[in-house]
Amino acid sequence: MQKVLKTISIVSLLGISTLTHIYANTFKYHPKNKQELLKLIRDNNVYLGDIDTSKITDMSGLFWVVPKYQCEIIANNKEKISDEQEIARIERDYQICLEVSVQEAELEKIKREDFSGIEKWNVSNVKDMSYMFAYTTSFNQPLDSWNVSKVKDMNSMFAGAESFNQPLDSWNVSKVKDMSYMFAGAESFNQPLNSWNVSNVKDMSYMFYSSSIEDNPPKWYKGN
């Protein structure tokens, strides 16, 4: 009996190992950090579904294509504000901007129009999705299957994503603390979000500003 159990255990281990190997080989690209991932998504010959994103923890500003001079405009806004919390936000936005900004001549070259395959991404380890799809005017891929249970920051995630209108009601957002400006300027978005658990959200200011559901937001929305 023990011999049989031992054999089953060995087979099981081999099976797990084989499955892991097969899973790993289903992807062409295995970025280890945000910078490696940025290089891939800015190559329009790379199919997003071929990227293994399981090791990525930071996706902030990932598809936000912004010219370098705009980062200085963001920084200059700090001089006009006295509120410490708002100053801290601007400083953080400035850092993200610097990280993802490019020279103006490169904008059209790296701007992505094909987002197919992104719905397959493993985002289970991601903690920061702020500005992820900011101002991606053509983005409208389904993301409802994403596991966002570890995400803490969704600030401006879909800000200015004027075409986006996909269901997100299945998302577990219970760890998110910042949803400010999340759908600001997302003109098409009108999906129901009443099922979201927003008990840990500290800031949802201007979350739906200038969006389709600004006048009819979810019941839990605290307003600007």
Automatic annotation (TrEMBL):
<dbReference type="InterPro" id="IPR011889">
    <property type="entry name" value="Liste_lipo_26"/>
</dbReference>
<protein>
    <submittedName>
        <fullName>BspA family leucine-rich repeat surface protein</fullName>
    </submittedName>
</protein>
<dbReference type="Pfam" id="PF03382">
    <property type="entry name" value="DUF285"/>
</dbReference>
<dbReference type="InterPro" id="IPR005046">
    <property type="entry name" value="DUF285"/>
</dbReference>
